[in-house]
Amino acid sequence: MPAPKPAADSAEPDQRPFWKRKRLSEMTQAEWESLCDGCGRCCLNKLMEEGSDKTFYTDVACRLLDADACRCTDYKNRSAKVKDCVTLTWRNIGRITWLPPTCGYVLVARGLDLAWWHPLVSGDPETVHTSGVSVRGKVGASEADVPDDKLEEHLVSWPLKWPKGAKEKA
Predict the structure, then answer these.
(1) 3-class DSSP state of 44
(2) From start to end of the chain, where are the E strands?
(3) Could you report the per-residue pLDDT of 102-137, keeping only the tens digit for each?
(4) Distance of alpha carbon 30 from alpha carbon 163, whole angstroms
């Protein structure tokens, strides 16, 4: 649930950060994009169990992911270049079951606050990496080097978990 908005006749402006005072549908494009913490977890290849919503992550990254920066190398054209790339929107965020529990979009959509390491909270884009949340140093291969029938050899469970200390305040 989004936080309630102050009464229109309130004398003081709401000083809370935008993600605490706006609904996802009310955010500007820049605000929406800034909810991404830059972890790169959603850019790992996933396998879906047939007949269920169960997701299995791999340590195999999308061919467009820069595994050190944890960012897409061609964000603007990613959907055209990667056929199964999903563009997150406020309309679909609640239906996507494979996003990691640390995801800023997921947290805000559930009415929760962003974690201490999120760049919007910490003011530092490196905290997502130093907290152990990002894929930096954890990517085993690029999908360009791993055929689909070998993805099961790269299954990992850490993308579906909070790293130790990542929930706590630094």
Answers:
(1) strand
(2) 44-48, 55-61, 65-66, 71-72, 141-142, 155-156
(3) 999 999 999 999 999 999 999 999 999 999 999 999
(4) 28
